[in-house]
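TL;DR need structure tokens for one chain.
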Amino acid sequence: MEHFSKQLSWQNFFATQVAEAEVIEAEAEAHLKTQEAIVMLTGKKVTEARAERDIDENVVAARNDYLVSKARRKMLQVTMENRERCANLISRELTRRVGREGNQRRNDRWNA
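>> reply
TL;DR here they are.
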């Protein structure tokens, strides 16, 4: 039961971390879109503006930050889901053992 409690605590911790990572990812995405929009306001043709946008230092840095935050969120999400599966496995095992206990005691009394 103690192991199950620890699994649930870790699951709660990673759920919080995933929520925080989602917020950071959304902020990074908003910053990237802002930087792209700033570069697109040059008044040049769309093709030229897009080419400038793709090589602009601020846009490249913002895109990199966004990709890093997205990767971190995905890694945390996978870890949280793994912890959730472990907790579910332990829960099923505990339920199986507790449910079997009554029958096992009855069998022990009759076979003793």
